[in-house]
Amino acid sequence: MKIFLNGEEAECEDRISVQELLQRHRLSPETMLVELNGSALHRREWAAQKLRPNDRLEILRVAAGG
């Protein structure tokens, strides 16, 4: 299935959850912010939120600085 991941076309399994996608890419959920189709997702929603064809997912890594 085709989705858009950080603005780039990407292929993934049908009906994969946001949480599963992050795990497959070995991304630590503690340091990530996720936006799906223009709306921010709470971390508690990641497991239940299944991706659909042409979804637009933005994944941002949070970094502290000073």
Report what the structure shows.
It is a single chain. With 66 residues, the chain is mostly beta strands. 11% of the residues lie in helices and 33% in strands. It has a 5-stranded mixed beta sheet with strand order 2-1-5-3-4, with no helix packed on it. A hairpin with a 2-residue loop joins strand 1 (2-5) and strand 2 (8-11).
Summary tags:
mainly beta, five-stranded mixed sheet, 1 helix, 66 residues, 11% helix
Briefly characterize the structure.
This protein is mainly beta and 66 residues long. The chain has one helix at residues 18-24; strands spanning 2-5, 8-11, 32-36, 39-41, 56-61. The relative contact order is 0.31.
Which strand order does the major sheet show? 2-1-5-3-4
Order of helices and strands: EEHEEE
- Mind telling me the C-alpha Rg? 12 Å
What is the general shape?
A: globular
- Mean of residue pLDDT? 93
Reported for the largest beta sheet, the result is: 5 strands, mixed
Helix content: 10-25%
Q: Uncertain spans, ≥5 residues at pLDDT below 50?
A: none
DSSP summary, beta strand count: 5
Intertermini distance: 41 Å
Strand content: 25-35%
Number of helices: 1
Write the layout of secondary structure elements.
Blueprint: E1 2-5, E2 8-11, H1 18-24, E3 32-36, E4 39-41, E5 56-61
